[in-house]
């Protein structure tokens, strides 16, 4: 079992920045992934942290404006977002799995066993 708690969401204007955090506890996951979901749209993968494969992937959709940063010596994964745009608005979720195959297909939300409750990001123009 992996427990996940997101934090750091809020309301910002276009061009602003936010740092989201996902705190993990319990079992150690194989990978941790940030997803987001805008109203009326499907949940989409944003970034992957897979330490065993030395992978820190970021989705094409965020256009180089997002980075992930695990806290040293902790089980917290940060999502650093800059140059935020209205299209970034949505609820951001942290997901995790202990299954390698799910990590290899990390943008497929169907495989994840563990989810946080989400944190809201609103970008206004």
Question: Brief overview, please?
Answer:
By secondary structure, this protein is mainly beta. The chain is 4% helix and 51% strand. It contains 1 helix and 11 strands; from the N terminus they run βββββββββαββ.
Features of the shown structure:
seven-stranded mixed sheet, four-stranded antiparallel sheet, globular, mainly beta, 125 residues, 4% helix
Structure notes:
- With 125 residues, the protein is mainly beta.
- Strand 7 (66-70) and strand 8 form a beta hairpin.
- The protein has one helix at residues 100-104; strands at residues 2-7, 10-13, 18-26, 31-37, 44-50, 55-58, 66-70, 76-81, 90-97, 114-115, 119-124.
- It contains 1 helix and 11 strands; from the N terminus they run E-E-E-E-E-E-E-E-E-H-E-E.
- It is globular.
- Strands 2, 4, 5, 6, 9, 10 and 11 form a 7-stranded mixed sheet that branches.
User: What's the helix count?
Assistant: 1
Query: What best-fitting shape do the alpha-carbon axes yield?
Result: globular
Beginning-to-end CA distance, first to last residue: 40 Å
Count of strand segments: 11
Q: Report the average pLDDT across residues.
A: 95
Using only C-alpha atoms, the radius of gyration works out to 13 Å
User: Based on helices, strands and strand pairing, what is the structural class?
Assistant: mainly beta
* Percent of residues in beta strands: over 45%
- SSE pattern: EEEEEEEEEHEE
Question: Which spans of ≥5 residues are poorly predicted at pLDDT below 50?
Answer: none
What's the story with the biggest beta sheet?
7 strands, mixed
Helix content: under 10%
């Amino acid at each position: 079992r992996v427990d996940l708690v997101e934090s750091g969401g809020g309301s910002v204007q276009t061009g602003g920045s936010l740092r989201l955090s996902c705190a993990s506890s319990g079992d150690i996951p194989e990978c941790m992934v940030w997803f987001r979901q805008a109203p009326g749209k499907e949940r989409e993968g944003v970034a992957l942290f897979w330490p065993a494969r030395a992978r820190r992937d970021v989705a094409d959709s965020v256009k180089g404006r997002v980075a992930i940063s695990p806290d040293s010596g902790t089980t917290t994964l940060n999502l650093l977002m800059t140059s935020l745009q209205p299209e970034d608005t949505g609820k951001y979720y942290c997901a995790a799995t202990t299954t390698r195959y799910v990590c290899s297909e990390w943008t497929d939300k169907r495989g994840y066993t563990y989810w946080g409750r989400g944190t809201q990001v609103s970008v206004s123009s």
